[in-house]
Amino acid sequence: MKKLLCVLVAMLLSVSVLVSCNKDGSVTGKDEFLGLQDGEEFVTDKEISLTFIRPMGNDAQEAWWAESIASFNSEYSGRIKVSEEALVRGDSSSYEQQIGLRVAEGLPDVMYMDGPYVSNWAYNNMIIPIDNYITETYLADFMDYVIDQGTYNYRLYTLSIVDSTIMVFYRKSFMEEFLSKNPRFSDGTLITLPTSPDNAWTFDQLAEIAEKMTTRVGNITRYGLSITGDKTEWMSYAFSPMWGGNILGEDNLTATGNLNSSRGIAAGTYLRNLRENNAINPSAGGTDFYDDGTNSQTSGGTCKAAMFLTGTQNITKFNEFDNIANDWDATYYPRNNDGSYSVPCGGWTLSISKDCAEDKRVAAAEFIKYLTSAESCESFSRDTASPPARKSLYDSMDEYKSGSTVQGGAYYRMREQIFKAAAPRIKTIAYAEFSPILSGALNEIVSQSSGVNIQDKLTTAATQIDNKIRQAAYK
Amino acid sequence: MLQKVRKKSARQKQYDMVGWLFCAPAIVFGTMFLVVPIVLAFGFSFTDYHMLRGITRFVWFENYAELFKDEVFHRAILNTLQFVIFVVPLQLGMALAFALLVNSRARGFGIFKLAYFAPVITSMTVIALLFKNFYGETGLFNVILRALGFSAQGFLNDPDQAMGSIIVMSAWQGAGYQMIILLAALQNVPQELYEAGSLDGAKGFTRFKSITLPCITDVASFVFLITLIGAFKLFTQPYIMPDTPGGPDYSTMTIVLYIYERGMTDKLIGYGSSIAMLFTAAFIVINSAAKWFKKLSDKYRVNREKYIEERI
Q1: How far, in Å, CA of A193 to CA of B237, rounded?
Q2: How many domains does chain B have?
């Protein structure tokens, strides 16, 4: 009898959760415009309170958020009040998990979310389209790939302030010393720094340079390259272009036969060879490139990596160290060996949640527009050294202008590669299932001490992704 | 015939009330954090509950059927069993050895009590990160191996060595706690038994086997049980130490980690709950078997003592 009672209670509780989980926000058709026209002022009878959630960032980002939200609240005093909550993101998908856990209890009105998850969150009705609230003229200044990243099923769901891209960062002193010896590639051609995205190093050339730049300084091996990043997402972000755009098939939901295709195996072999040929340190820390142990040391004698394939989000970290703030430069993200070129991009972006009440949505859109205004994008871009999401800023910010000498022209090269071949990460509703498994497999290909079977590793990863996609019932 | 129920006095009622008040925190928290989650997980295990979409339908036994096909789940079971089989005797053996050493009261051994217990009061996360470093390519253990002329080992980066590396670290980390309990038991062994034993010529291992071990059996079986339970719940080490949680090649994936991976990371609450329910059921069976075995051994001991007394 008692057991039966337990089962009944369980069923009742489950049903109550079912009811609470299915209170989706209503979604308005694309043609119906509900927001404010450009230049129209937001008016309201009583102050609207908005909740905003975001991940905790570095010092520069935190300072920017504090200032921006304070200034928004001051400018919209008596009309809109935003209260924010910053969650620790950590080295995993814990931010996404924490947001997921709040779905049942109610999501905050505005959420700052990682770009590749837009399709996943839109598919799961966690966020609503914002194209009913923001005019097309307002959107016209945003980079195409930013709009592409925020679009799911022909509806725009998110808008970004800044973005990110990946480049090959290098220590100028080490590179100059290396190039002064007139090194040559195995085909006999002289190694030089690329002058445009069209002649960016290929992945093979990068590996060859990294191998040649690995040296032993005293008791410390300084590796030519570091590719270390977070464990959940980095490897798939950095290396998925090597699959040539076909990593999950045409439906973006099929890993077997695509992820473990010949291109995938070539990518895995490439990464394994970086280790085998001592081009990278397989157990490198993420700070090997810029942290010499002290921020005032200038010799670089203890630096453990001469180059760093990483995202632009790390630039602020480089600049915290006096010894490399003026000693880093960057060249373009590598081309595929077949000459094709796709630069991984994508960054954090603003969305309105399904739980934002209808009478608050115009205010929420105003908040997003305030954060994505030209002034706001420029200040966030400058403070965090991230490429802006707006096209016009590349012509007005000195560091991105043609002929810029800021940091040896690194920012201009960033602009060049973005305008040439920027592409958001793979747009799949199963990104949450796909990315950690691919990253895990690629991490293991690099870190495993011996006996790595790349084909098996990628096939297992592909099977796991397909199983998870099937179990999650994505259609 | 109806029995006459004796009415409780006001004083008795007051006593009862105080008793219930003392129990209330345990009942409330136990219900909130133990009973309700178990009941909920049981209910969820029959649904397609996805963290972001909620429940769209009852799938009845589909989740359980899926588990039979899930190779990673099978791997997690085998890994957990491997961990339990190796870590429990290793940890208990180490704990007993430490306890005997400390109990010998030799000069300077007091410091070992602190040394062995220190890992217990240190956060498992901190220890896991420390050992991750020790096991690294340029970590302490490989430095020692190279200095001794051996080749460096993969440890956590080798699927054949990863679980072994975690077992060694876990046995070392947990042994201090068991040592303290066993030490208390050793110190409660009546000295007159040793004196009587020495009159009969018992020394060294005979003394340990015939006096010490029987006297600490009850405590040792309790220690065995809590070590067993702790071993089945392995999570932190395989989550933190390998480069990929449960890796490489799922060689350190355990049942509890898999529940977390499927329920939290993959957001499949229904599927994760079905693993949790199977785990709970298996755990109850193992726990009951351990208790039944203890009862049986107690009965045997009582009978043996009765037999000896009769003979005397």
Answers
A1: 44
A2: 1
pLDDT at position A13: 52
Contact B267 A432 (CB under 8 A): yes
Cα torsion through B91, B96, B98, B103, rounded to 10: 160
The residues facing A170 across adjacent strands are: A307, A329
Q: B67: closest CA among B249, B282, B246, B288?
A: B282
Chain B touched by A8 (CB under 8 Å): no
Q: What is the pLDDT of residues B157-182, one digit of tens each?
A: 999 999 999 999 999 998 989 999 99
Residues of B in contact with A436 (CB under 8 A): 265
Condensed to tens digits (0 to 9), the pLDDT of residues A102-141 reads 998 899 999 999 999 999 999 999 999 999 999 999 999 9
What are A348's strand-pairing partners? A114
Domains (range + CATH), chain A: 36-160+347-390 (3.40.190.10), 166-345+426-471 (3.40.190.10)
- Asked if A162 and A347 touch (Cβ cutoff 8 Å), the reply is yes
Whether B30 is covered by a domain: the verdict is: no
* Rounded CA separation A442/A359 (Å): 46
Q: How far is A3 from chain B (nearest CA, A)?
A: 10
CA atoms within 13 A on the CB side of B107: 0
pLDDT for res A20: 46
Asked if residue B91 belongs to a domain, the reply is yes
Interface test with A, best of B72, B239, B267 (most A CBs within 10 A): B267
Handedness of CA A199, A200, A201, A203 (dihedral sign): negative
Per DSSP, A340 falls in state -
Asked if residue B231 belongs to a domain, the reply is yes
pLDDT band at A19 (very low <50, low <70, confident <90, very high): very low
Give a yes or no: residue B289 inside a domain: no
Selection from B44, B65, B66 nearest residue B56 by Cα: B44
Torsion of CA A155, A376, A322, A215, to 10 degrees: 20
Task: State the residue range of the domain holding B198.
Answer: 70-256
Rg (CA), chain A: 24
CATH of the domain at B143: 1.10.3720.10
pLDDT in tens, A273-283: 999 999 998 87
The pLDDT of B7-36, averaged and rounded, is 92
- Residue A474 in contact with residue A430, Cβ under 8 Å? yes
Q: Where residue A22 falls among pLDDT bands split at 50, 70, 90?
A: very low
